[in-house]
Amino acid sequence: MRRFLVLCKAAMPKGADFxxxxxxxxxxxxxxxxxxxxxxxxxVSVLCAVTLALGLTACGGATGEAAKSSGEDxxxxxxxxxxxxxxxxxxxxxxxxxEVGYPPFEDFADDGTTPIGFDIDIITAVAEKLGLKVNIINxxxxxxxxxxxxxxxxTCSAVTITPERQESMLFSTPYINNYQAVVLLANDxxxxxxxxxxxxxxxxxxxxxxxxxxxxxxxxxGTIDVQIVANExxxxxxxxxxxxxxxxxxxxxxxxxxxINSSKDFKIAYEDKSEPEQFGIAIAKDNTALQxxxxxxLAELEAEGYIKETYDYWFxxxxx
Length: 320
Hints:
Elements: E1 6-8, E2 18-20, H1 28-36, E3 44-50, E4 64-69, E5 93-98, E6 107-108, E7 115-116, H2 118-129, E8 133-138, E9 154-155, H3 163-166, E10 169-171, E11 176-185, E12 202-206, H4 210-220, E13 227-231, H5 234-242, E14 248-252, H6 253-262, E15 266-279, E16 282-284, H7 288-303, H8 306-315
Parallel strand pairs: 2-8, 5-8, 5-9, 12-13, 12-14
Antiparallel strand pairs: 1-2, 3-4, 6-7, 9-16, 10-16, 11-14, 11-15
Helix pairs in contact: 1-6, 2-7
């Protein structure tokens, strides 16, 4: 897997610098909706050239000409986090594997090249706390964990913390809670009181996600008879639902919140709050020093109110 890196320098809050890899597109309606809400969000622009990556390898490929932060002004409180003993792929840079194209966690701005989203804001703020530049590497979800410690230092991409994953990687403290949800078209009057109500329907979901694992288990055990349409990108799931190709989408509730908050075409018909999930930043198993530093950074951001402000911005009033 090759990495295509471009260093982007500009006047950022507190002297922050960014390094961006290849990218995709944002839901324009999401941004328009948030502008209408008058959220206090400051977009900081940085200009850069992005090297063309031919073909979609595990890191993905695209061209880009500009990059900008989508986050609030970063917290002004100075950090004294100890970075001694921390090992990185590149000195002074936190390299981050993300599957860009999973709104509102990771997506692309209107320019089609600038990664923005909740995860982008969070990991950028974490890196700033650590005194590091940020290298966002667009990576296909399938195989994203194999790249930790090989192609990038961490993965921050709506990763659910599970016992199975903890066997092969470290996780930061959780930075957001999540549930599995069923999304229907807004004019669909079907009642969903549990996943069992999906029986006899066709559903779209993203491959190799918690949603995929959950629904595959329901189907393989004969709990429900459901037709599963598994996609590489979650955006394809909502397109299929809107086009009438499937009856429902099973997806992270946080992603559903983002779509509902930006479009009147969809509604959340069911959330399984009996099985809460937590997202964390995934780190190489042997990089305990980096795990400790990231946890300290997250604790500072939480105390400063930055995580809540960013959550409210990206997920809006729909989220709890």
